[in-house]
From TrEMBL:
Species the sequence originates in: Rossellomorea oryzaecorticis
Domain of life (superkingdom): Bacteria
Name of this protein: YkvS family protein
Record-linked Pfam families: DUF2187
């Protein structure tokens, strides 16, 4: 499995998307404001996603 890099767009948890801001050993920190409907979903601005739980959409 390829790990995401800073600036990649990833998809996780049934369609949520975000931009990778930081890559850690076991996870990435993702900015969710990338999504157009971000405000409607009432989510936190950033979240942590394990490398096993996403796929890279754009590099």
């Amino acid at each position: 499995m390829k790990k995401a890099e800073i600036g990649n767009v990833i998809e996780f948890k049934e369609g949520l998307k975000g931009v990778v801001e930081k890559v850690n050993e076991n996870s990435v920190i993702v900015d969710l404001t990338y999504m157009k409907n971000y405000r409607d979903l009432e989510l936190e601005e950033k979240t942590v996603v394990n490398h096993k739980n996403y796929k890279i959409i754009e590099q």
